[in-house]
Amino acid sequence: MRPLPPEDPGTPDHRGPARFLVWTARRTWRSVTGAMALAVIWFVGQALIPAVVGRAIDALAARDAPALTAWTLAGLGLGVVQALTGITRHRLAVYNWLAAAMRTVQLTVRQAARLGGALPRRLDAGEVVAISTSDIVHVGDAVDISARGTGAVVAIVVVAVIMLSTSVPLGLVVVLGVPLLMAVASLLIRPLHRRQQAYRDAQGRLTGRAADVVAGLRVLRGVGGEDAMAAAYRAESQALRGAGVRVARTESVLEAAQVLLPGLLLAVVTWLGARFAIDGSITVGQLVSFYGYAAFLVAPLRTLTEALDKFTRGHVAARRVVRMLGTTGDLPEPAAPAAAPGGPAELVDAPSGLQVRPGELTAVAAAVPADAAAIADRLGRHAPGAPGAVTLGGVPLDALALDAVRRRILVADNDARLFTGPLRADLDPDGAAGGERMAAAVAAAAAHDVLDALPDGLDSDVAERGRSFSGGQQQRLWLVRALLADPEVLVLVEPTSAVDAHTEARIAARLGAARAGRTTVVCSTSPLVLDRADRVVYVEGGRAVAAGTHRDLLDSCPGYARTVTREED
């Protein structure tokens, strides 16, 4: 089993759809080149069979037993070569298809993660769905067909040379007929290209509208707009159906041309060959060979037409992928990323004056919860801000590559989601956590009862968006996932807001030990959590106005005391 693309798919060339397809093929150039070479041998082996059969017939007519035996063995050898090269070529072709499709998935998922909250504002949901479902298939098809397309071209050239060397008129029929057939096919490919593009755009818009309707269904029912939206969706759906019918009509004409045009070429070659055989210009064996050549040419001609079709579809799909890859988010990458500081470093948020010491558990208690959430977003570089507003070891976060920030700082808030599939894979996507680490994270998040209630424990399947779990259960599972990620800096936003007091006390008591030696920031106003922090920072009006232990601040800072005890002024 050959390995599929590595974790890092590379930096794509998204200056245009053709450049992206070439870049994708070059990433697996060895297997792509190997598939092309095998396809050439495979097709040429088929092209030589009619010549061998014709020579065998002539040897039989001349009663030349040695020659007949030699040509029979040659045909057997070509058959063995075709079988071996055909099997190996197909294996490489499947690998090339999978590699191209999976690499496109990796790139689009990585780009979606980079765009984050900006993704819905930059791209329609339907367009993203179309990329992840159909466009990756067409990109893979475009890379896959390159091998057979190359073999078909070489085979046609070989057949033309053989026919020209035997009979110039018949050879000219092939040499002139093939480009003519391809020209006719290209005339059909062009409108197919346009109609496919229009269909895909309409499909993306309709999928996006469906997602919007489902998300806002409760609101629509409340204002009485459900019928109006249903009517609009129905009209767009019928328009999409019409666009699909137009695509299918062009495709059916193209399929018919793929059968008719090579058939006409076969008829012309057979008719001319028969006349030349009657005149004695060619032998009976050569006539059989020419018929075989004409019949064989149907396959490479259909392959070339298929290649044109798949390259066109791949170009349309790559244009959509390139548009997504070229989309910029709210957080632009620095032109020349700075070097990240080595080892644990102090994290400083200048707008609030918050200083997070490395290796400590720092709690942020804000009089207004939105201030704490804003600080968490800045610490994780999830929101744009003033240049140099947040620094890590004296290096501005916005001067670091976004990937470097994400690897070192993880912000876990209550907007997290559980994904459909086995719970173990959801909590530990990389599969790097062993049994002891998993058990420790589950214990720290006080999530044993959640797992005990599942029929298969960690191997149980999670329902869509984790809807089978209560809010408190989901919150504890999110915490398990964050602890297993084990980032250098972990920022938790209200990690115990949905659990009962007893569970909150257990989490607060175990969190510090679970993150020993690592930097942890907890945004919370829970006295149970604050009492376990190494250091508490009180934020009022967006600024850090006091710092110390929970008990010290209760005595020295009235605002802090009112905030954490929920007292009214």
TrEMBL record:
<dbReference type="Pfam" id="PF00005">
    <property type="entry name" value="ABC_tran"/>
</dbReference>
<feature type="domain" description="ABC transporter">
    <location>
        <begin position="322"/>
        <end position="566"/>
    </location>
</feature>
<feature type="transmembrane region" description="Helical">
    <location>
        <begin position="170"/>
        <end position="189"/>
    </location>
</feature>
<dbReference type="GO" id="GO:0015421">
    <property type="term" value="F:ABC-type oligopeptide transporter activity"/>
</dbReference>
<dbReference type="InterPro" id="IPR003439">
    <property type="entry name" value="ABC_transporter-like_ATP-bd"/>
</dbReference>
<keyword id="KW-1133">Transmembrane helix</keyword>
<dbReference type="InterPro" id="IPR011527">
    <property type="entry name" value="ABC1_TM_dom"/>
</dbReference>
<feature type="transmembrane region" description="Helical">
    <location>
        <begin position="35"/>
        <end position="57"/>
    </location>
</feature>
<protein>
    <submittedName>
        <fullName>Multidrug ABC transporter permease</fullName>
    </submittedName>
</protein>
<feature type="domain" description="ABC transmembrane type-1">
    <location>
        <begin position="34"/>
        <end position="313"/>
    </location>
</feature>
<feature type="transmembrane region" description="Helical">
    <location>
        <begin position="284"/>
        <end position="304"/>
    </location>
</feature>
<dbReference type="Pfam" id="PF00664">
    <property type="entry name" value="ABC_membrane"/>
</dbReference>
<dbReference type="GO" id="GO:0005886">
    <property type="term" value="C:plasma membrane"/>
</dbReference>
<dbReference type="GO" id="GO:0016887">
    <property type="term" value="F:ATP hydrolysis activity"/>
</dbReference>
<dbReference type="InterPro" id="IPR027417">
    <property type="entry name" value="P-loop_NTPase"/>
</dbReference>
<keyword id="KW-0472">Membrane</keyword>
<dbReference type="GO" id="GO:0005524">
    <property type="term" value="F:ATP binding"/>
</dbReference>
<dbReference type="InterPro" id="IPR039421">
    <property type="entry name" value="Type_1_exporter"/>
</dbReference>
<dbReference type="InterPro" id="IPR017871">
    <property type="entry name" value="ABC_transporter-like_CS"/>
</dbReference>
<feature type="transmembrane region" description="Helical">
    <location>
        <begin position="145"/>
        <end position="164"/>
    </location>
</feature>
<feature type="transmembrane region" description="Helical">
    <location>
        <begin position="259"/>
        <end position="278"/>
    </location>
</feature>
<feature type="compositionally biased region" description="Low complexity">
    <location>
        <begin position="332"/>
        <end position="346"/>
    </location>
</feature>
<feature type="region of interest" description="Disordered">
    <location>
        <begin position="332"/>
        <end position="351"/>
    </location>
</feature>
<dbReference type="InterPro" id="IPR036640">
    <property type="entry name" value="ABC1_TM_sf"/>
</dbReference>
<feature type="transmembrane region" description="Helical">
    <location>
        <begin position="69"/>
        <end position="87"/>
    </location>
</feature>
<keyword id="KW-0812">Transmembrane</keyword>
